[in-house]
Specification:
This protein has helices at residues 7-24, 30-43, 90-103, and strands at 48-56, 66-74, 78-83, 107-112, 119-124. α1 crosses α2. The radius of gyration is 14 Å and the shape is globular. Helix content is 37%, strand content 29%. The longest helix is centred in the N-terminal third of the chain and has 18 residues, at 7-24. It is an alpha+beta fold and 125 residues long. The chain has a 5-stranded mixed beta sheet with strand order 1-2-3-4-5, sandwiched between helices. It has one domain: Trna Endonuclease, Chain: A, domain 1. The protein starts with 6 loop residues before the first helix and ends with a strand.
């Protein structure tokens, strides 16, 4: 089996997410998990940017048609989108894949803190 791209980074992020979920459980707002995850990732020595604005372009238009904020971009390589909902649905996957395209990144994690057990999806463009 081929080695997963940025496996070392994604493993640290997932580990940090499990740490947050095991301490907080489910039931909090997304921003609470985002702050806790930022702390855990910094403890693991990961470099990240939080809530960075990204321009969204449409076809050949020279001007962006809007912006979007990803929860995290880690090590300038991995997009991390957080949810705090009962369960992830296809629409959330599609949204995260669109963010990967907009940010011109290949690897992303969609992490949900809202269910009884932490759930996540690894996304690759």
């Amino acid at each position: 089996m081929a080695e997963l791209k940025y496996k070392d980074i994604t493993e640290k992020i997932i580990g940090a997410s499990f740490e947050v979920h095991s301490f907080l459980g489910n039931g909090f707002q997304e921003v609470i998990y985002q702050r806790a995850l930022a702390w855990e990732m910094s403890q693991k020595g990961l470099e990240f940017a939080r809530e960075i604005e990204q321009d969204i372009f449409y076809k050949d238009l020279p001007e962006p048609i809007g912006t979007r904020r990803a929860d995290f971009v880690v090590e300038n390589k991995v997009l991390v989108e957080l949810k705090a909902i009962i369960q992830l649905e296809d629409v959330h996957l599609a949204q995260a894949l669109n963010y990967l395209k907009a940010y011109k990144l290949e690897v992303g994690l969609l992490i949900n803190f809202g269910s009884k057990s932490l759930t996540f999806k690894r996304l690759v463009l």
